[in-house]
Amino acid sequence: MGGRSGGAVAAAVRAAPCAVAVVAAAVLWPVPADAGGAHRAAPAAARPPAGPASAACADPEASLRPRTTDGPAVRRIKDRGRLIAGVDQNSYRWGYRDPATRELSGFDIDLVRAVAKAVLGDPDKVTFLAIPTNQRIPALEKGKVDIIARTMTINCDRIKQVAFSTAYFEAGQQVLAPKGSPVTAFDDSLKGKKVCTAKGSTGESELRHESHGASVLTVPNQLDCLVRLQLGQVDAVITDSALAAGQAAQDPSVRLVGKPFTTESYGVAMNLGDEDLVRRVNAVLEDYRRGGDDSPWMLAYRKWLAADLKGITAPPQPKYKD
């Protein structure tokens, strides 16, 4: 793909409320072709995210049953008087800093405020920390944050490292490409192209599993991929369909192509030892989903996501393991 003129790129970046971040250091790793240059075709149907542990883990979305009794993690938050939440500040309509108000806004931000209200009685008693994609798990393991609400996919590898709430949204990996691009889907149209994805993301795992002949650029934050695409430095982006829809809304010169090629569930992530907090967050999610078309979940969906992710009529149903 050829680069755009400097004026066109600048206009595209100005059009995107969030695409103002400086592109951080990136890693490029080539993926060799199969013998004879052949590449496997894309799967016919969406599949669970790739990962070596997937065969040994049948239901990673199953979480602890909700309870509202205070345990050590909830008491820690109450004693502190604030919930510390790791979020994104660059994902339009999910977690982004509104340029007009300078406040963090989006679907994930509303969910965090609901947790703060339930635990502390005040939705504003939150300290938001912007956490890069590749630092989500370390931030929880080191106790830097209480929760991560950052379009984080629940999968079999991650549940060994962090605990998740029940699923609060469902999406899938999809390809974002410029309008008019020869890239048409997650298939052999990627051969010889350069693809960007966030380090530590499901997209990176999928591309390591099957690159379709593309070379892969990894960056700390998914927004960096949009900027790289705007600058003509990559040919396509692999990310969650939900995030990609927000990026397409930011920049009308790009579009989603093909269909989602995985099925994924987003969950609120917490430290493995904070079982009481997991149960409390699941209780919050029970209330958040309750109320049918007028539930807090549906109100947030219509406010933030319905314009770009049409056709959703209800939140995902929770799964519990005990």
Overview of the molecule:
InterPro entries: Bact_solute-bind_prot3 (IPR051455), SBP_3_CS (IPR018313), Solute-binding_3/MltF_N (IPR001638). Residues 82-308 form the Solute-binding protein family 3/N-terminal domain. The protein has helices at 6-15, 72-80, 107-120, 136-141, 202-209, 222-230, 241-250, 275-289, 296-304; strands at 27-29, 83-87, 90-91, 95-97, 104-105, 126-130, 147-148, 162-164, 169-171, 173-178, 194-198, 215-219, 236-240, 254-257, 264-266, 269-271. The protein is an alpha/beta fold and 322 residues long. It has two domains: 6-30 and 173-257, Periplasmic binding protein-like II (D-Maltodextrin-Binding Protein, domain 2); 58-169 and 266-304, D-Maltodextrin-Binding Protein, domain 2 (3-Layer(aba) Sandwich). The strands form four sheets. Strands 1-12-11-13-10-14 form a six-stranded mixed β-sheet, with helices on both faces. Helix 3 crosses helix 8 (275-289). The longest helix has 15 residues, at 275-289. The protein starts with 5 loop residues before the first helix and ends in an 18-residue tail after the last helix. Residues 1-45 and 51-55 have low confidence and may be disordered.
